[in-house]
Amino acid sequence: MSGYIEAQLIILCLSVIYAYAIFLPAASGQLNLGAAGFITLGAYTSGWLNGSDGLGLPMALSIVLSMAFVGAIGFAISLPILRTRGVYMVLATFAFAEVVSGIAINMEFLGGAAGMPVDAHAPVEVVVGVAIAVVLFCFYFMSTRLGLALRSIHDDESVSLLFGVNVRTARVVAFTVGGMLAGLGGAIYGHHYNYVEAQTFNVLLSIYILLYVLLGGTQTAWGPLVGAAFFTVLPEIFRQFAVEMGSDWLADSRFIFFGMFIVLMMVVRPEGVVTRTMQDRCAGYLSGRRARTVAAGE
Amino acid sequence: MLLLQQLINGLMLGGLYVMVAVAFTLIIGMLNFLNFTIPALFMFAAMMMWATMTGNLPFGNDFLFSVFGEHHIWIAGAIVSIVSICLVSLIIERFTYRYMKAKYGDATEHALPLVSSLGFLIIFEHLVISQWGSDPLQIESPFGNATFTVGSLIFSYPQIISLGLSLGIVFLLSHVIRRTKLGRALRSIAERPDTATLMGVDVLRIVPVVYVITGLLCAISGILFTINYTSIDAYIGDTVATVAIAGMVLGGLGNVWGAVVGGLFVGILEVFSIYIVGADFVKVPIWGLLLLILVVKPTGLFGHTAIGKGKF
Questions:
Q1: Residues 67 to 86 of A: which have CB under 8 A from any B CB?
Q2: How far apart are CA A266 and CA B37, in angstroms?
Q3: Which residue of B has its CA nearest to A23?
Q4: Considering the entire predicted model, what is its pTM?
Q5: CATH of A3-297, one of 1.10.3470, 3.20.20, 2.40.50, 1.20.1740
Q6: Which end of chain A, N or C, is surrounded by fewer C-beta atoms within 10 Å?
Q7: Which chain A residues contact residue B120 at CB under 8 A?
Q8: Residue B215 — pLDDT band, cuts 50, 70, 90?
């Protein structure tokens, strides 16, 4: 595997982990624009636990502990944040991320604005393995009773409430588990690149992650996978293509086309690339049944 | 005395935040979504101002210099910037508000205009980067170092003018919303777009007006920012707009005068935070305050409870 492919694979895997972290709250209809905050927390916590300046724990243990820590923070802030709704929730999660990054930059023992080196290195296999585990976990999670509850809240909150779904609990769980996954993603990032800098986890990262999820589709667990894969691989292919054509301008401006694509996507397919109907159709074709009956049954 | 000088600097900075915060609050109050094209418009206006003043426009530089001359090129910059922002606002309107209604209603359908506006943010930032790069760009201030002093306090003319201008524009806007026919139509759309349509309000013709107004606010604050601080880059919109969002929430979503108070307050808070605890720490008080307000009193100081509920 060439170094270039490997680097792209790492970016893809990290994007997938981040996307699932934001997908879980989004699956219950909650937009979380604070991914960068959870990622920062996970990366710094794991790095500090593992580092010789910190506790010097083994890498696996420090990753697990950092997930637990980020999960605890996520749980603590989910209670007040889930009281807010819609625009307010977007803003509150966004504010949370900014506060976290502001604090991280000012912690001298975490290296401050210069960033923090991380000791233990996570090789490619670990990153890919963790990403696959996260994907499998999320597919399982969405197939459980709780996942079904999330889907029903996403479609209609009042009706779910009438049918006895504990909306609050489901949302708190989705938000907390989402936070833990983002923390995991951050920890893996830190251990792979062996360096954490709060400025890399900025507003734009949160925005991009939310876009992966919303463009991939929040209705099924395929959505974030497709979204993240699409939007990390496609611009790269486009860049290669432009380089081969010998046009530097085209290579530099690929994000303009990416932005246009997002705008057009909202016009022609606002629910995201993968919808539940589409999933059922594909499943119907694969198992040889008439797809129409399944799709109509939704 | 030094504290008083900091207070004045804070008010001047707040004046710029006020206009961006008012732009945000108008869109949230009227159309009920968080418009992320506002940072892009602010940055684009600042960039057009810079490009005109330094002769870096893709075309028409010689013409503008021959008409306005070296000394008045800032007037050309303001015109180019305002005209281009108005056009851009109309294009953005076409692709955000009009597609707000999803085919299948679910909880994230209200995220549509949010996502398209993020798409536009990406488009404009990279358009500017591919044209002029992402490094900070400088201009010569057209007014030099024009200041006057009262006692030992230093006031800069461009900053005084921009504070006055921003308050004047907001006053005018608030008058338009309260007293005119256009304002009544706007308020009816804010309350319930479907009913407004039934009552004979041409929603599809009024909404572009809201976009042009917000575009103008962004353009003017972008121009004033360029003249006052003389250094801009492609990410300047994000920096300014995130602080302006904090100001808007503080004042209460959808409330114009709330945005004015909030904008001025975060301006002062930012300057004092830099003065007391240093530039690196400035995020924590502003965003901590915002988080606290959102959790404790989401309506802000003057907001209504209905706005933003259940919508993105």
A1: 80-81, 83-86
A2: 15
A3: B108
A4: 0.85
A5: 1.10.3470
A6: N
A7: 259, 263
A8: very high
